[in-house]
Design goal:
Elements lengths: L2 E6 L5 H4 L11 H9 L9 E4 L3 H9 L5 E2 L16 H7 L1 H9 L11 H14 L6 E5 L2 H11 L16 E8 L2 E9 L4
Parallel strand pairs: 1-4, 2-3, 2-4
Antiparallel strand pairs: 1-5, 5-6
Helix pairs in contact: 2-3, 4-5, 6-7
């Protein structure tokens, strides 16, 4: 049975506009307005999930989705780096940032390593093969990147090469561990 998964990135909030690690802040006014304007552009789905973050839940609600919060698709735990910019972190601890960017097992922030995060998202993605019908998941950009890396069996370093824009849909379809990708269409566009 083929599974069709649409991964939706959330609209903008203060952290995304400030290029900070998310601090669970709500959508900003522009992000909320853009999400509300995109209502009705997603195909109907049998299963609708949402990351537990405030901005993902608000995006799902603004899109008119009745989504089940799912901790399995939560963003990467960034530990004590939450709310900080990469530039500020590099200015105070360049070695830690370099380790985090270069070693998928490193977690200098005290949270989750990239490898552990990717494995967690992979378990969720692999578990979808038992479902029937379309699945929609509103999830943080890092969750979507991890899902894509897993689906494509790409190396961990490819994580840093994927850009997931706000309020875009990324489609995966496949069966038995083989996925096809349609990447990054803005909501409201075909």
């Amino acid at each position: 049975m083929t599974i069709r998964l649409t991964l939706v990135s959330p609209a903008t909030n203060g952290a995304s506009r400030g290029v900070r690690f998310d601090d669970d802040s709500p959508l900003d006014a522009e992000g909320l307005a853009r999400a509300e304007a995109a209502t009705g552009w997603l195909p109907p789905a049998v299963h609708v999930h949402v990351s537990p973050s405030v901005r993902c839940r608000q995006t799902a609600r603004a899109l008119g989705l009745d989504a089940e919060p799912l901790s399995a698709i939560a963003a990467c735990d960034m530990g004590h780096w939450r709310g900080r910019t990469l530039g500020a972190l590099a200015a105070t601890d360049e070695h830690a940032v370099a380790r985090w960017l270069g070693d998928p097992d490193a977690a200098p922030h005290g949270g989750e390593s990239l490898r552990d995060f990717r494995a967690r998202i992979g378990v969720w993605l692999d578990g979808l093969h038992g479902l029937t019908g379309r699945v929609i998941a509103v999830a943080e950009p890092d969750t979507i990147r991890a899902a894509l890396i897993h689906a494509l069996a790409a190396p961990d370093q490819a994580f840093w090469r994927l850009d997931i824009r706000p309020l875009t849909a990324t489609d995966l379809s496949g069966r038995a561990g083989r996925w096809n990708l349609r990447n990054g269409r803005p909501l409201g566009a075909e």
